[in-house]
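INFO worker-7 received task bundle
INFO bundle size: 2
INFO processing item 0
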Amino acid sequence: MTTPHLQVEDLRVTFDTRGGSVSAVEGISFSVAAGRTLCLVGESGSGKSATALAIMGLLGPNARCRGRILFEGMDLASLTDAQRRPFRGKRLGMIFQEPTASLNPVLTIGQQVREAVQLSRSLSRRSAQLETQELLRAMRFSEPARVAEQYPHELSGGMNQRAMMAIALAGRPSLLIADEPTTALDVTVQAEILSLLRRIQAERRLSILLITHDLGVVAHMADDVAVMYAGQLVESGPASMILDNPRHPYTHGLWRSMPRIDSPDRPIPMAGGLPMRQGWQTGCRFRPRCPHAFEACERDPQILMKEVTVGSACWRNVSSIGAESPSASSPMKENPTDH
């Protein structure tokens, strides 16, 4: 059996606030296989971004992280910040959600990409400039020299995102974490970004952890899927299995809420919202929103996910209730942004 490129075991993230300790991630475990894409899926507030920042070691000073983060045989969670720093940018790259908030507005795109190159690799200024041009060209900028002289406000959202991708890839990482890389982009630009990610992955044999709430992105990009709800992992498995037959009611609700180009039916939004983190209940946290809840749901179903990498943290299998699920071979997989 192939050793996972990244393996997260019993990860827990809490934040100290004025109102007390707030839990963001509670005991999740998953792995990213070499050369594959794992999509971490869930609504905003599920704990996806906190998970990514924990892996990168970029949580704030008020955060506490427990568990193991095994990357290329090293437990990153056991390292000090100084020991972990060489991994960031070199072996681990990250594309952040908002490029306009992440890019420095007073530096040109070229300066920012070149800085990333020089910090991660020992190159002369001239070599770093040439590498910057190559990176921008690889990001499908037709005039990389001109783009290098421009500032973030002079570029479109999609161009800024591609510049962020160049920065993330400057150190030639083996694992790329992409946090909602297509947020706030129009559907055409989304398709371009996803296509570029797939091409780069194939060329560089990258492993990708892609964080998203967009199920069209999942259908287009994922080899494997892990679904989060209220800080917990509720379902995981190969993308084909999750898309064809979602077993957890939350996953099924996400699928039903997505517009489908192959169906005349309107999407059905889920009722309610995520519970407050200070008031997470015992038992299944999705229970108040679940149309299939019954007595057993008052017990914690997380035990069902403890010893498996494929499964659902649900006492009742949605597929056995006769619920329909989208087919992985439906047109939505071929048109991920037409929604």
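INFO item 0 finished
INFO processing item 1
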Amino acid sequence: MGLIQCTNVSKSFGEKVALDHVSVDIPKGKIFGLLGPNGAGKTTLIRIINRITIPNEGSILFDGRPITQEDVEKIGYLPEERGLYRKMKVGEQAMYFAQLKGMSAREAAAELKKWFIRFGIESWWNKKVEELSKGMAQKVQFITTVVHKPSLLILDEPFSGFDPVNAQIIREEILRLKEEGATIILSTHNMESVEELCDNIALINKSHVVITGGVDEIRHKYGNNNVELVYTGSAALQSVEGVFRVLSDNDESGRHTAVLEIADGGTSNAVLAEILKQDLAVNSFKELVPRMNDIFIKLVTEEE
């Protein structure tokens, strides 16, 4: 059973259907990618989990029971629309948010000091938020989201506003928090981050779930039976009818990188046997698995 179970959740705003009987199961201790184009219903589902919005139908279970306001206090939520008070000092504001989440002043100060040191931003404590760049403010808001050690983290586009170096720092922190036992919902359009971070995903489009499951499982499901072969030989590899077809072959000084399409019902062993018959030396042979970005585009386009 997952930490969060959403069952047949529906929500409408007037005649606009935001969610239509959406069911997802978010496993404990995993990073769950919530994907979909703009307007698909992702933010509405996040708001329902946070009890900001009440669904018209369906249920949300937290650790096997109906979610309560006390459970919401165990959630760290980083919304896409950032919300720091620009005239307040960074440290004063971080303390305020930490204490809102139930931390004592002493506990908050100690934990925030650790985070500020980790991010190398100790000198920011007495700066006003309005003095910070967008990326700097993002770091502060990330810290205020995680400082109370929530069991569930909901991160909506957490890499927005970061340069590549700082985006990688945030990725590493997300993985570290997962290792420490947090369950993380990651809503993002960054498919590279999905492949790098997520264990499971749900793709929502036009208010309903299109696909849900493990990232590796989904990538293999949408594979097209292609493999990449790196080989050396005096002649180029030739297709073998009924076994494989050479789709492309790039020759760099006798070292070839080829993409092969295995025939329906064919096996890698049969392909390798035919390659060796052509007196070629195999350097590497691997399955070509589609990227999440390609699968995302394919599924959303088919829905359209």
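INFO item 1 finished
INFO post-check item 1: The first strand starts at residue 4 and ends at 13.
INFO post-check item 1: The first helix runs from residue 42 to 49.
INFO worker-7 idle
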